[in-house]
Amino acid sequence: MKHPINAKNARMLREYAAYLRQADGKSEETSRQIEKAIQRYQTFSGFEDFARFDAGRAMRFKATMADENLS
Amino acid sequence: MARSDKKRRTLAGVDRRRLRRNATYSISELALALDVSISAVRNWRRKGLEPIDDNVPLLFQGAAVKDWLELARKSRRSRCGPSQFYCFSCRTPRVAVNASLRILQANEKTTRLHARCRVCNSSMVRNFTAAAGRALFGRRGQPDLAGFDMPYLEEQPKQELR
């Protein structure tokens, strides 16, 4: 079974998670929760490049989360 | 085969539940998470485990690794037909030598039969239902597996075992 993934995003997410843990002093648990939230955004956006993220997408994502009672 | 002191973990012994589906892993992270050697992970890559892209460091998606390990484990399984036992020496299901059949162990639910491989004469063991054991050894003379189609334990759905 093929699992959707955007390789560029995945590499960026790893870097960000390492930053959270190493530079920001976040715990493993916290950084996992943040990764999970970003994963939720990726599912919403259809795994499109993070570079295309903008205010419109953010607002649509917020609305979707509100519909699903996630926010 | 020479035995080394170092613990060797086969594909069947790898606990893929240690991986997170949404995480990505480098080769060394995979080796650490699954408690296997780095060269084992490199071998998996040669055998078809796909990284997320061609850039370095190679990264593997947790979900894809889980699926690949499950598939690799399943592809190693082979199903014995009627009157066959799995021969660990030939590594394939083999027909047993009839004269070698004997009961190793029997209780009210299962009968464990021992037999010799027709090809390499190694010991083979297989579990049957108790009814199957009784039927086979209840006959007169030497038990004969030919035409013996009583249920094997692992192949029959539960309701047919009753």
Could you explain the architecture of this structure?
Chain A has 71 residues and is an all-alpha fold. Helices cover 66% and strands 0% of the residues of chain A. Chain A has helices at 7-22, 28-45, 55-67. In chain A, helix 1 (7-22) runs antiparallel to helix 2. The longest helix of chain A has 18 residues, at 28-45. The radius of gyration of chain A is 13 Å and the shape is globular. With 162 residues, chain B is of the alpha+beta class. Chain B folds into two domains: 11-76, Winged helix-like DNA-binding domain superfamily/Winged helix DNA-binding domain (Arc Repressor Mutant, subunit A, Orthogonal Bundle); 84-155, no CATH class. Helices cover 27% and strands 25% of the residues of chain B. Chain B has five helices and six strands. In chain B, the strands form two sheets. In chain B, strands 3-4-5-6 form a four-stranded antiparallel sheet. In chain B, helix 1 (27-34) crosses helix 2. The chains are: A mainly alpha (71), B alpha+beta (162).
Structural topology:
The complex is a heterodimer of chains A (71) and B (162).
Chain A: H1 7-22, H2 28-45, H3 55-67
Helix pairs in contact in A: 1-2
Chain B: E1 24-26, H1 27-34, H2 38-46, E2 59-61, H3 62-75, E3 84-87, E4 92-106, E5 110-117, E6 123-129, H4 130-138, H5 158-161
Antiparallel strand pairs in B: 1-2, 3-4, 4-5, 5-6
Helix pairs in contact in B: 1-2
Low-confidence stretches of chain B: 1-5, 155-162
In the sheet with the most strands of chain B, the strands line up as 3-4-5-6
Amount of helix of chain B: 25-40%
How many domain modules of chain B? 2
Order of helices and strands of chain B: EHHEHEEEEHH
What does the largest sheet of chain A look like? none
Q: Name the biggest interface.
A: A-B, 12 and 13 residues
Radius of gyration of chain B in whole Å, from Cα?
A: 21 Å
Strand content of chain A is under 5%
